[in-house]
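Hi R.,

Quick one: here's the Methyltransferase sequence you asked about.
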Amino acid sequence: MRSPWFNKLTVIFGPRPPLSWLLLCLISVLALITVLGSSSSGAFDSVTPIPVPDIYTNYRRLKEQAAVDYLELRSLFLLPSRQREIDLCGKERENHVPCYNVSANLLAGYKDGEEFDRHCELAREEEQCLIRPPKDYKIPLRWPAGRDVIWSGNVKITKDQFLSSGSMTKRLMLLEENQIAFHSEDGLIFDGVKDYSRQIAEMIGLGSDYEFLQAGVRTVLDIGCGFGSFGAHLVSLKVMPVCIAAYEATGSQVQLALERGLPAMIANFIARQLPYPSLSFDMVHCAQCGILWAQKDGMLLLEVDRVLKPGGYFVLTSPTSKSYGSSSSMKKRNMLTPIDELTQDICWSLLAQQDETFIWQKTMDANCYTSRKQGAIPLCKEGHETQSYYRPLVSCISGTTIKRWIPIQNRSSSVQLSSAELEPDDYFEDLQIWRIALKNYWSLLTPLIFSDHPKRPGDEDPVPPFNMVRNVMDMNAHYGGLNAAFLEERKSVWVMNVVPVRAPNTLPLILEQGFAGVLHDWCEPFPTYPRTYDMLHANGLLSHLASERCSMRDVFLEMDRILRPEGWVVLSDKVGTIEMARMLATQVRWEARVIDLQNGSDQRLLVCQKPFLRK
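And here's the predicted structure, written out as tokens:
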């Protein structure tokens, strides 16, 4: 609906006033501001005021107000073409995940499993629309209740699919009328997930799985994580699991894990490297994950070696059930013989074997690679360790010359800072900034910010509960300071720390802190299902993307796709960029409000909430 002011302008100047009149209006506004000596900005709310010199403040505010007035005049001038809300998608796209189109991949010539891989380069120009939730979608239960019970209408798994699944699935889940209940005491492996976890701990020489952290196991890459029961148990031990699994049109492991509030993303062991740097995880776990590790000349196992830290563990539970008799034992032995040869060649040792579970340990000594027999798998050439963003798999051993080669058993509790990769002062300054910022952020996560409430946001309003959100994505994570601040404040969240591919690569430091993280190009869709995050945060990302080839409108559509209904977006950036973002937020139908930090900088916050568009 057009404002009365806009209607008057239309009557006087016509539907598209000439540029000279716009410039005259702008000059008039500036003159009026100067005469009145305005020192306030009615378009902004204020939080955490910090006093600054009056002259400097007034000059800066005049300059900022001029920029805002120009943008508002420009937005009014372009209102009919730019402010139109984006249409909703049809029902067929309720669970749409871009870049995973098997038919298009086959037509392009991909085969041998690569047709199931991620190929954003083939993504055709799609209709720009907002993906709406399914008819029976409900807001997830808050953590920790949401870990054990999810709404069946929120995930793409039907009652018929559940009833036709094997006994293992039935032991993991109980399907009721409109809920799926997970029983972590039963089912991941034969004697229950707790027994299985304790078995792994004992096999690596620990008294119980409560000693994982003491043994240096803080992060676990869980390949083909089922419905996340092992990951849920690891979270209770304060270990960070990251589930990865292939894209599945229905019954997705990743979608179910994220719905339960567990870290997960779509990723494949097919032909390309995972979007993690070398030496990223303390343990890699594969329980009935269906991957034949000796295939492709061992390159799949070499990728495990690349992301595994020195002294780390590879846990493999074979896809066969408990075997009895010589025939089954011989079959198992034949299956493992190629793996045995590969593991010896890459300096792994078979630490233990019990029932169907095998555990190898990666060498702690980088000199092991120089003492191998002739003809062994070669080391990757120097300079190979660049960003691992979906590069082709390699047939060489990575990570042996990195300064981060520190066995997990020798790692101190403090963060290891490598001066070759970052400035320690920057890291600690970043952490301090986010300690302060998070207190302001948390007070803003309330619908009162969008009402005509008389109090300032966060002043006297009740602070949202610690479990207000669970799945958080920091789209430009820097050093992971926001994640660290969440932990210090004891919020019940986990954070997917995303490092843009063309930003400084701080991901090794983020992972070294025991956090979840990944490299990503924001010109492409993120590898996850719709409605999987409660909160999206980005500091400086929009300015960073301004010089990239991607469309800001596409970025907002992708954010809307992965954000849950009633989820939150907090963007921090320069005033001009934030005003542009506010217009885009209006187009994707978010409630949006700009917050002036009142700290003497040109930074602004844009706080948005996605509405629940019911059918």
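The mean pLDDT is 81.

Cheers,
M.
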